[in-house]
Amino acid sequence: MSDDKKDEELSAFEAAIKNNLAPIYHLLEDEKVSEILINGPHEIFIETGGKMVATKAEFPDEDALRAAVNAIAQSVNRRITDDEPRLDARLPDGSRIHAVLPPMSRKGTTVAIRKFFKSDMTFKKYVQLGAITVDGANFLDACMRLGKNILVSGGTGSGKTTLLGLLTARIPPGQRLIVIEDSTELKVDYEHVVFFETRMADDLGTSEVSIRDLVISSLRLRPDRIIVGEVRGSEALELIQAMNTGHKGCMGTVHANAASESLTRLQALAQGGDAKVSETALVMQIASAVDIIVQVSRYADGSRRIASITEVTGLDEKGRYKYMDVFRMSRMTKRPDGSLDGILEPVNVPTFMSEIEDNQIPVSRSLFKKKAA
Fold it and tell me: Residue 373: what pLDDT?
């Protein structure tokens, strides 16, 4: 798409926003607001600083809110009607919008707008924010240099995409990266990188290009590393197979609340594909494909931190995934100001410690202290 066409789309979107979303326009402009949640015309919440907050903003009535959603849909060449009461779209500024109309939504038209921010986050800032320790960052840096396949796991809004972007910045030079996303969010500062973005189906339900389609295409484009912004469908199988066929250092994010749930989640997604792979064979492939799981969490004080860095060590005698925490968040205590005090501690020596030493990567074996669970 030409720059002129992009500017034209953005102008149409901005006009629709100002004309139809006036009651929440100040929230859209506020950089501290990351998400706007509209539960009918008279109930609007925002997420700011990692916490959900009620606002006094409201629309005059349901008709005004519905008209606003219709206008936004039209500005991005989509539609939402009684026959098609759901809208899922990427807006020209990179934000995502999802809407559901009544009577499915009982309080009135329900909308979630997740704003897109161009992050200037670095590992140094990530450490300063307390999201990870220096030792944890150095260990992840070693994993990137060694080409370990990494799964970033976490709940909605936990910071998975932010961490994935930081990890891509630590890939050694001289490689070809292919980045696949639903909508472009990852900021990748790298010499040789190809960006792919999915395309939604048109009004006739055709012309869709899925993440799975793009993963399959990427395998034929000589990638060194494949990075999937969010693994949420049958493309999981292709990514697992890529990890097992010489593509070292592949990465992706997955929705899971604990490292021990992430591979089960990945397995369930892979089983949704049309390939005929037995469960036993799939479990074996996953166990050999994923090396490291980084669990990120959003805590009660609104902070987003790495909760654990876990190595996948294979399967046990019953064919279940085996995990070993290399780093784990300590017990957290509440400070007087309500924030939580905790630190990501080294707890076990990774099984590939000799590989780190052989490559003269500055991560010391003495760093790791085995502690009681």
Answer: 43
| Same domain flag for 257 and 314 | yes
Whether residue 96 sits in one domain with residue 220: no
Q: Which residues pair with 99 in a beta bridge?
A: 87, 111
Choose among 153, 9, 133: nearest CA to 78: 9
pLDDT at 370: 53
State which of 60, 82, 114 marks the end of a domain.
114
User: Tell me, what's the pLDDT at 6?
Assistant: 54
pLDDT at residue 187 in the model: 79
Q: What is the CATH number of the domain that holds 14?
A: 3.30.450.90
Cα separations (Å) of 370 from 140, 321, 324, 364? Answer: 19, 21, 11, 14
Least Cα distance to 148 among 225, 222, 260 occurs for 225
- Give a yes or no: residue 373 inside a domain: no
What are the start-end ranges of the E strands in the chain? 33-39, 44-48, 51-54, 86-90, 96-100, 110-114, 150-154, 177-181, 193-197, 225-228, 251-255, 292-298, 304-315, 321-329, 333-334, 340-341, 344-346
Q: What is the pLDDT of residue 114?
A: 86
Burial of 96: CB neighbours in 10 Å, binned 0-12, 13-18, 19+:
middle
- What pLDDT was estimated at residue 101? 95
* 211 lies in the same domain as 292: yes
Tokens of 334: 């509440």
Say whether both 131 and 280 belong to one domain.
Answer: yes
The DSSP output letter for 98 is: E
Task: List the CATH number of the domain containing 316.
Answer: 3.40.50.300
Chunked into runs of 10 residues, the chain (373 residues) has average pLDDT values of 55 69 89 93 91 93 93 82 86 83 94 80 89 95 96 90 91 94 80 88 76 91 93 90 89 94 94 79 95 94 93 95 95 88 93 96 85 45
Joined together, the tokens standing for residue 235 give: 């493309």
39 and 137 together in one domain: no
Kindly report the number of other CB atoms within 10 A of residue 35's CB atom: 18
In the listed set 89, 114, 139, which residue is the last one of a domain according to the structure? 114
- Global pTM value: 0.82
| 95 and 212 together in one domain | no
Cβ neighbours of 141 (radius 10 Å):
18
Neighbours of 60 (CB within 10 A): 10
Which domain does 19 fall in, by range? Answer: 7-114
57 and 195 in a common domain? no
